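Q: What does the predicted 3D structure of Bifunctional diguanylate cyclase/phosphodiesterase look like?
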Amino acid sequence: MSARVNRSPLTFHVTLTVLALAAFALAMVVGFGFYAMMQADRASLKRQKIFFANGLQDQIAAVEREQESIAVWDDSVINAKAGNQEWMAENISVWMYSYYGHNRIYVLDAANRPVHAMHEGQLVPPSAYREDQSAIQPTVERLRQLISQPPNENQASGPVKLLAEDLVSLGGKPAILSVMPLVPSSDRVTQAPGSEYLHVSIEFINDAVVGKIAEKYLLAGARQLPLSQPISSAAIPLMDSHGVILGYIGWDQERPGLTLVRKAGPALVIGALLAASVLAFLLRRLRRASFALQTSQDQAQYLAFHDTLTGLPNRALFEDRLRQALLTASRDKARVGLLYLDIDRFKHVNDTFGHPAGDELVRQTAARLQQTIREIDTVARLGGDEFALILIDIRDIRTAEDISEQLLQRLQEPFKLMDDQVFVSASIGIAISSGPDVDSDDLLRKADIALYEAKKNGRGRYQVFAGDMDDLLLRKRKVESELRNALNGGTGIKLVYQPIFAADGRTILGAEALIRWAHEVHGALPPAQFIAIAEERGMIGQLGKWVLYEACRFAIGTRLPWVAVNVSPLQLRDFGFAEQVASILRETGLAPKRLQIEITESVLLESSNATRMALAALRQSGVGIVLDDFGTGYSSLSYLRRHAIDKLKIDRSFVRLLDDGDGSSSAIVRALIDLAVALKVEVTAEGVETEEQKMQLVGMGCHQLQGYLLSPPLETTQLLTLPGLSTGDQSGHAIAHA
């Protein structure tokens, strides 16, 4: 009995101790569980806020990239300054709304005055800018200050990307504001510093934008919250550059810890009796929660470094892999190849088949690129239709060329888009690392230059970067600078004139103005060479205006019936060209009928509204339109009839055939002359160098002759020595001389 009594307190104490230990263990487990729950929820909330902040920055960057696609474009500069409202609507306002969802677009001139406006896909009067001006003006002024700053001497060569962005409140709604200058995409168009038009793009941060961010990071219940609504912890502020809060983005907070505790609750009750089992259960659940969090984090990290449309590495991951590849190559003394690739005329596919078809074309292109390259190589999408490929450990340039050839052939196979077969091509620029000290930025620049050369040389091809491309670029810039100085009061640029004679070989019917440049270093430069540079570097408008003015100023002081001036196709694409010619005629006092504009057949093949309008306006004013080098291009009767040409000039290559004594050669020239007669236009034969050529041409009915047999191009003083040309009589009649 006593023993039993003694054991009972012992048993009680043991039991109490066990229970106490179990209770302590349970309390520890429960306490740890709640602590882990709060830590998990806190860490999860922090990650969610980072996701939304990064997503907002990505959305701002996306607006800037989308805006840059039209802000850096020759046509944008030309048409904005020309006030072409229809073009701006189709390409830089309504298009930005329909394709990218930008809600409001404004185009400001050099004085920050609105010249174009769009709200929600509808054109509105430019005066609508006033309702947003107070919010937009600080950002516009900040961009103007950036533009006005002189370039940094340490700045890398190449164009500087200028933009100003901010978050603003418009009508009580927060919005992304991005302002960029409209700048040329090539050197064919130039504009004076400070004369830049500005493109203002606004995208409201509404539930759709917030939902897009939330969808990317798999968060639920995302919404835009006004300032008046109470804000929970699951929210981030929308703050402008001055720290002013414009609103909030809120969402349904994910609480993995709380979810875990709720699910583990029944187990915790049972665990009061089986502490060890409860602890094991909790550890197992925590491990699962940790795995779920890690999976979510891995997915977010994947989305941050991959393109959502194609699944390819994006620019950030591409640049990191390129740096790693170059570091490895420098250690192993290997070579890395970089390929820049984009789809030729991708915008045409979008405009023809729609943007979903364009996205599908990008996806299929990405798949073909991945299937063609090796597993160790990298293909990335940089944006739009631009791709980059990193080729690891290649032997030589030939390896990169072989891969490029395979890629081009693969992309030439038809694509199936919207139940249609579409054929496209691509252009590729190739750059190869040349040593251990290769910089990734330098390699990117070289590949970009090579891609530009590939497109310039005909598209649908690849181009390897060569050292002389840099040298050629420098030489072109030097010639451009010297040509600009010559036009701005320098010396060396002048006009000579080659008379055009009647069939008798004595009567002067007119003269063609020809440009010459006696360069101080290189001597007489071929006109085709420096005119091509002027076209490429955007100076042809200035050069053409100088030639027109000098030719008209000379003609007004002579008795020449007319003077002919060659015009570049690029000049005719300028909507203000016809008015420019009219202004020069008014300023010099030359009658329109005494001026002839010579164009090439390529002009007729263009379907440019600006070109058609310019030719029609010139002809209506009395200026003659001459088709130069007739028969060497792709002219057709439909083009000739549509544009109502006043004169055809038979190219010297056909005139030279007359010396062959071949009847078929004479028949070709006769056919050209008969065509001109049938069209009831005048005809001039160029390059007449022999008496036999002259006699045959006159016999065929050609009554205007030009060539060295009759007269070479003459200096103005030489031309004026011809009898009857030095007086101010402007009767416009043909002039005979001995």
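A (community wiki): The structure tokens above were generated from the sequence. Confidence is low (pLDDT under 50) at residues 1-8, 728-732. The radius of gyration is 37 Å.
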